[in-house]
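Aim 2 progress update. The chain analyzed this quarter is reproduced below.
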Amino acid sequence: MADLPMDRTAVAPPFTYVGVDVFGPWIVTSRRTRGGYANSKRWAVIFSCLSTRAIHVEVMESMESSSFINAFRRFVSIRGPVKQLRSDCGTNFLGACKELGITPTHCNNQEIQNFLNENECTWIFNPPHASHMGGSWERMIGITKRILDSMLSCSPTQHLTHEVLVTFLAEVTAIVNSRPLTPVSSDPECSFILTPATLLTQKTGDSSIPPGDFESGGLYRRQWRQVQHLSNVFWHRWRTQYLPTLQPRRKWQSEKPNLQVGDLVLLKDSQAKRSQWPMGIVVNTFPSQDGNVRKLEIKISSGGTCKTFLRPVTGVVLLLKNTCSKDSS
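Predicted structure tokens:
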């Protein structure tokens, strides 16, 4: 198991080192027409601070690169400049980097380094099928995505508007940022609880909740009551699904030999068709700072053509070691 990255332990202002992910879409009511309602889709981009573990959510109107750039500019305008971004190899992320002057083919290439020197910001891409490499923000995003998708993907009779969605996601951000970061003390004289919201706002205490019953009928006649009802539902599901993640997890310490160039491996492809076993040759390795190889470049021959893929070591199975290098030595 690798050590924590430097950006996880660096002493820096909030949202200096950020993890990014996009989820959705959801159907919202854009306007009323003679035949009923005109619907459109909305997505959300979540920015997770790697040091304070706080989140920031912005709404996007499309999955195009320009929409993501606008959401990123809103985020930077509110939270300040970002020194490092981490994300997966999503199409919209790659497109946004292309418009920003980055064309990454691998996670560590010269063009990204040039962008760092010019704009003082690094964008690190995890290899495909390696969500565990973004565990610090993928865990928060995973729980939030599952709850929101289950709540907002139901029947369109709720008439969820853009304003309701933006306000609801702001309430969701406040709920997630109010979670404790440290174990709660049993001392009655020490009632202070450290939360991401405390680190962001420098204020203590819970946010005020509007009084009233939001479980009765007629909620969708008033948009603010609809937001409070959705926030209560999200709070109940968040609390029940987040608490199990606080259980201690063991760290594996056993060492395994590194994969080398020329090794024959089998890819763990969940989309492989029946009776297909995609095998390939390791053509390049990317050692980490501790010397262990956790990322590979694999060449596969399929249909008379050769293709290269970037995969983590957890996404391949070693079939045959390359003994030529040992024999020659």
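The longest strand covers residues 17-33. Strands lie at 17-33, 36-49, 55-60, 84-87, 122-125, 264-267, 279-287, 293-302, 305-312, 316-320. These observations will guide the mutagenesis experiments scheduled for the next reporting period.
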